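Appendix B. Chain record.
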Amino acid sequence: MLNVFRTLLVLGLLQITTAYAEMSIEIIGAGEHQIPIAIAPLGGDAKWSAAINDVVLADLQRSGLFRIVDNMGKAPHEPNEVNYADWQALGAEALAIGAVEMGEAGRLSVKIRLLDVLKKSSLLGEVVSAKETQIRQIGHRVADLIYEKLTGDKGVFSTRIAYVNRLGEKYRLVVADSDGYNEQTVLAQNEPIMSPAWSSDGTQLAYVSFETGHAAIFVQSLFTKQRRLLADFRGSNSAPTWSPDGKRLAIVLTRDGSSQIYLLNADGSGIQRMTFSDAIDTEPCFSPDGQNLLFTSDRGGSAQIYRMATAGGPEQRLTFGEGTNYSPRYSPDGKSMVLVHRANAQFYIATQDFQSGQLQLVTDGGWHKKPSFAPNGKMILFASEARGRGILASVSSDGRVKQHMFTQAGDAREPMWNPHF
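C-alpha cells predicted for this chain:
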C-alpha cells in the first residue's frame, strides 16, 4: 500500500541577490553497486515536468550510486498504468512516476511515487510543493526522497555549499545549491575573503575578511544580511568554526604571540584560550557532540592532527607516519575525520577512522585542500585545480566517485558544505 502522502514545503533560505549561475560538472567513476532506476516523465505541464526531471536525473547520476535506465518513451503517471513486465525487461529495479500541477497562490505540487519493479509494490508516495520560482528545489527534494528510500541514507541534494570566488582582485563569498546552481553572493569586495564556516543550523556564516587591514572575523546572517565584526584583536584573527549548539566559536588568534586556539561566545564575549604551546596551533573543528576539538599543530616538528577536550586538558596526537597532515574535519557521526595529507610534494584528501587509526587516501593527489563532509557523511567537498583554474571538487567517502565543478569565471576556493539538512 502507498504511504500516506505528506506535504513537504520546500523553502528558499537566502534573501540575497541571486545570479542563478551554473557550474560545469564532470563526473568521474561510479559506486561499486549501482541501482538501476527508471525516471518516467512527470505528468502535467511539459515545461515544469522537464525542468524537474532534469534536476532529479542529474542529482541521481552525479551521486554515482544509480544507473539510469532509458524509459523508452514510456510515461505512466499512476501505478495502475505501470506494466511491470515492460520495466523488468528494460532492466529497471525501481521506477519513479508522478505528476506536477499548479495549486493555489502560485505553488507547484509534485506527487511522486517510487515503485519496486521486481516486487511490483510501492516504496514511496509523497507530495513536494514550493513556489514556481523554486522548481530546482523541488527537483532536489524529489531526488533526496528517492536517494533515501533506495540507499537508507539521507540525501544531500537539497543542501547548500559556500565558497570563495576570486576574479582578478575581486573576491566574492558565495553560497549555492550542492550542484553549484542558484549561486548567491553574500559578500563582494576587493579584499581577500577566507575560511567560510556555516553555523550548525545553516542560517549564518562566519568568515575571515581583510577589509580592516588585517585578518578579522565577521559573522553574517543569511536571512537578514546583517553582518557584525566578531573578532578583531591585534595580529591575525582566523579559522572560525561553530560549536554544534551555535553558542560558541573556536578561532585562531596571534594576539599573544604564535597562532593559538581560543573559544568565545557567539556574541564575541567570554574569550578563553585553549592551547598554550610555542608552536602554531590552528584549524580547529568541533566534534558533533561539542565535547572535543580537532586541530592542526606543528608542535611535534611537523604539521599533524591533535585532539583535545573543549573542557580543557591534555592534547592527543592522532596522525603519525610519513608526510604531514592538516585541515581536519569530523565526520557527521563523529567516528572519523577527513584531512589533507601531504607526501612527495602532493596533496591528498584522506580519511582516518578514530578507532583503528587507519589513514585512507580517497584522492589520487595533486592540489587538494580544505575538505569538509556532506551532512550524510557520504561525500567530501574540497578545493582543487584543473585546466589552470581553482575549482571545487568532491569525492565519495570510499574514493570511488569524483566530481569536478567549474565556475563560469574565476577561481573557486575555500569550500565548505553546509552541515544542516
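Further analysis of this model is presented in Appendix C.
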